[in-house]
């Protein structure tokens, strides 16, 4: 529907108004109108009726045209305003036109009114359009001028025809410097081919081009520009200009490259790290995982992603994780994150200890959106920690069981550690006294402190082990003996520690003291015994000698005849006297050997003569038991240097035993031989023999093979002890061969000179006693 033209008339003559309306209508203009005859009506018309055009008389009784024009232009500066007047001179007309009227018409030319209306409206419209276009162009040009991007236009030959501020900023040339130059100014000399082939040619053919290329600033600096280019055509459609729009994308390209590199790096890191990197949504469903989830838990990433945290741990560990997440949520969004250790189930359902470092990701409104983190398998670490704890515990328990104190002195920090045993040893509760070197020094017995403390400090300084016994004051007031042992070490960590133990040795100290007392008492007792024996020597032998001597005198008949019975008793008395004397002699000899040694009297003598003498002395007994005795002497026996009495006694004891333990009608053979520097004598009998188990025992004091034997054979078990001792004094030795029930053979050897000699085939050890022939040799018995 055509919009009716709104006309505001300013007219006082109704017939003129009527005429004007008719003329307008007759030309087919559809309109509606509003009439104003004074200023009030006029303003109402302007502001309420809102006219498209005003047709006004010049002179009115209550109003005038120029005033109406003024108000109209105030209302709208583009308002078409036609003055329709009965009389108007040229001056007024010019004045009205100058004031902004669109046209003026004399009433006598009223038929021109409709055309004037059309023209006025058209021209006003054109003016408005032009103004809008101009304004737009101006602001466009401003925008282009002020644009941070470079906008450049060139002729078809490439000569720069416009150059905005952005171009100035980007390329560094002012518009004076750039205008009129060829656009190649902005290109690298190596890129002129690109300019022609890749930029201008496609632009002219396609009328548009877009490209990223390298460009050059005034100073020669190269950068990367993003170019958008198009052509400008004239009305005839002929291309007349080229326009280009450029901006520097060096930073973006660099950033993009950097982003790509860093993305690549992170991808590599994520894919190659041994840690499992993951993310989960706030429903605790995993949304990403790298491949390490397979190495740690045996799940492929595709199996892991989409699974819920709850499926991967037991109740206790799940609650632990929820608690950690809750803590993470409590912290501000820009917190460091959360770190905790839990056990996660692997694909086979076994618990794997892992350390989790996670961060909750919040959106810009502060709402949590996801959790990201990495998990590390700490099985080895946990094992090591457990092993360490176990070994510490083991040490602690071992020390507790041993009841040893244990201390560590950190020499770098001058710090002390004493374990609880160290306190308990002295009867203090844990930490009842400060356990420092000071405390130890104060608790030490003053005499020990004087000696021990400087020694300990020196040992530590000189890095050598130490070992001290000292008395410490116990809580009870007693002195406790403590053995302190220690040494100084350079630890692998670079620290220097002195470490040691404390042992309560009070009991063993007491035992040691008692042993010392016992030793003193034993020595005293021994001294008394020796004194007693020395007395016995005199007191026992003197009466015995008179018993034996006077019975001898009575027996030899020099004091008159004695009858058979008297002789029998006298002989018994004499024999028993001899036996008793021999026993006393044995006991005294042994005690002398045991106490302060026996002095040997060396002489050079013929051993054969001594042997024959012994055979004679024992002949009576042999005859009594009808035992045949014989002696076999080897070649070149010669003389020997030894104590002749002792040699005789050795032989006598062995032969006497042989006679004693050989039943009637037996045989005894004595064989004497010289073997290099030794003399070897054997006495073989056909007696009762000696069981294997007794063959060594019989050489011990007071040992007799069996009680019944003793009763049957008499003796005190001292003969063989003396034999062995005498032989040892001569660096000789003795052994026995025997068969129970068949007989025994005692074989002894001794050097022909009193010199040291190794006796390889005799079991008895050889005592070293070097002395020259005929010298006196003091034998020292072995210490117990
Ligand atoms: P005793 O004075 O008792 O003979 P000895 O020291 O001379 O003491 O001998 C110790 C023991 O050795 C004897 O009691 C005896 O049992 C055993 N013994 C010694 N010589 C012989 C031997 N020729 N035949 C059997 N047993 C013997």
UniProtKB/TrEMBL annotation:
One of the GO biological process terms: regulation of DNA-templated transcription
Residues annotated as domain PAC: 209-261, 338-390, 466-517
A GO-annotated cellular component: plasma membrane
Catalysed reactions listed for this entry: ATP + protein L-histidine = ADP + protein N-phospho-L-histidine
Region named Disordered: 764-784
EC primary class: transferase
Keywords: ATP-binding, Cell membrane, Kinase, Membrane, Nucleotide-binding, Phosphoprotein, Transferase, Two-component regulatory system
Record's subcellular location: Cell membrane
One Pfam family, short name: Response_reg
EC number: 2.7.13.3
Modified residues (4-aspartylphosphate): 57
Domain Response regulatory: 6-122
Start and end residues of each PAS domain: 136-207, 262-332, 391-463
Keyword Kinase tagged: yes
GO function terms (MF aspect): ATP binding; histidine phosphotransfer kinase activity; phosphorelay sensor kinase activity
Residue ranges constituting the Histidine kinase domain according to the UniProt record: 535-754
Annotated signal sequence range: none
Name of the protein this chain belongs to: histidine kinase
